[in-house]
Amino acid sequence: VQLVESGGGAVQTGGSLRLSCAASGIAVDNFCMGWFRQAPGKGREGVAALDVGGNINYAQLAKGRATISKDKAKNTLYLQLNSLKTEDTAMYYCAKDQDTVVAGEMDYWGQGTQVTVS
Q1: CA end-to-end distance (rounded Å), the chain
Q2: Going residue by residue through the chain (118 aa), what tens digit of pLDDT does each one get?
Q3: How many other CB atoms are found less than 10 A from the CB of residue 55?
Q4: How far is CA 10 from the centre of its chain?
Q5: CA separation (Å) from 37 to 25, 53, 74, 79?
């Protein structure tokens, strides 16, 4: 299983980014998938999760500003981030849950993509 994130970068406050997570070895449509982030000196926190049934959970920090989606044909998970704030600066990771619904038992992680907002 391999998860490869991309799409991060440096943006100004108020800007947008779309993060991608290309999966291999698994089908993103067969498991709950999620996005997490970790800022320097802080713990990892969940951002959003999308389960097999299409149900979505957003953390409070992401509500109204983030959209999680997936492309079955490309086997890729996405996270659209809008109205970015400096406090959104972090390494963003995608991860696979062991279950088809949100269980919080992530067993595979990508290497991360850096988002820097100034």
Answers
A1: 34
A2: 999 999 999 999 999 999 999 999 999 999 999 999 999 999 999 999 999 999 999 999 999 999 999 999 999 999 999 999 999 999 999 999 999 888 789 999 999 999 999 9
A3: 11
A4: 17
A5: 23, 24, 23, 12
